[in-house]
Amino acid sequence: MKGVSEYMVLLVLVLQCFNMVVKVNSQKVPGMFVFGDSLVEVGNNNFLSTFAKSNFYPYGIDYNGRPTGRFSNGKSLIDFIGDMLGVPSPPPFLDPTSTENKLLNGVNYASGSGGILDDSGRHYGDRHSMSRQLQNFERTLNQYKKMMNETALSQFLAKSIVIVVTGSNDYINNYLRPEYYGTSRNYSVPQFGNLLLNTFGRQILALYSLGLRKFFLAGVGPLGCIPNQRANGFAPPGRCVDSVNQMVGTYNGGLRSMVEQFNRDHSDAKFVYGNTYGVFGDILNNPAAYAFSVIDRACCGLGRNRGQISCLPMQFPCANRAQYVFWDAFHPTQSATYVFAWRAVNGPQNDAYPINIQQLAQM
């Protein structure tokens, strides 16, 4: 993990006021299309039969005091990126009111517990995997074709930004759950990483074939450090589960290489790798630099590290939420999420490679 640079220290000042964000020319970005899991969901699972829901208090306690389906105490990564780009956070695809004019700033297809593989997260119930989200995007395209002509639609898609945050559930809700899934018996760690990368690569190229051209593809964070993994007792107290972090490191290295290959092969598009692992690793290694004081347990949850049982309805969360890196057993607080959003939009190549989201928006 890299040390905290001077500009990252200055970020702490910005972090104290979420409304003070750097905006680029909003006309450059007509919309955002969001794919992935609970890290970027804004309410799709509210409309599915699943245990992976967050439409109850105290979720949303810092989002106008109400739950929305975001797996956070407040705003999601997409909300913050939208603020910085001057684009409204797009609505959830499954919300029946997400029609016509509400679609003009893009759509959010992300679904909690969903993954790159169709099987990931099935023990929670219904969810939309990446392949299902691609099908949903095609349904949205059919709506757009009724709303604008072919040239306008082509320009709209090419100028919009695609944010994809997925892969975590393929590990924590598939490979690392042998009681439900056989992948850890059938694949070595490198083989499983390659399975994910090959599947994900086809999914991203499918989106490209449908007209999207600007992609931000986030890597997987240090999953061995989340309260859920710390709580399993596989690491000494106060330590992350190194074996899990090494697993996702294999995937992340492959994803960065895939982004380089895509940029060589598709000169009319731009693909960006988001270094989720590096940013959150920096936060965990240097918490005081970001005004965090609690890095090893959840603000809301039960059991060891408050990570054995995730946040329950009407549970009282910690009072000093801004000082916690993790909100529940699996997800960061909005304060930690903001750090990643800011660095993805404004950071150097170590945070977003080969360019950041602000530079992507201006292309």
TrEMBL record:
Signal peptide limits: 1-26
PANTHER family assigned: GDSL ESTERASE_LIPASE, GDSL-LIKE LIPASE/ACYLHYDROLASE-RELATED
Organism: Medicago truncatula
EC top class named in words: hydrolase
Biological processes, Gene Ontology terms: lipid catabolic process
Protein's recorded name: GDSL-like lipase/acylhydrolase
Main location: secreted
CC per GO annotation: extracellular region
Annotated compartments: Secreted
GO molecular function, one term: triacylglycerol lipase activity
Keyword terms of this UniProt record: Hydrolase, Lipid degradation, Lipid metabolism, Secreted, Signal
The keyword NAD belongs to this UniProt entry's keyword annotation: no
Any matching Pfam family: Lipase_GDSL
UniProt EC number: 3.1.1.3
The family this protein is said to belong to: Belongs to the 'GDSL' lipolytic enzyme family.
